[in-house]
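We store amino acids, tokens; thus:
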Amino acid sequence: MTKEDMIQVLRSVGVNENTVTAMSNAFDMGAEYMREKCAMVCDQEADDEDEDDAWRGCARFLANNIRFRGEA
């Protein structure tokens, strides 16, 4: 679900704008956490391996830990 999808759903069920703002902030915090986690894994892979292997390690992490839109 994108942030815009979430906001649309929240507004469609009639929550107040304070709730929309709070949920938007929480969404942003979660996105920031995942960016930091991904960067940490990529940095760790880069320390352990050559550059090409580091990118493959990052791709493996992302493939194994991030659910794409539409997946259950």
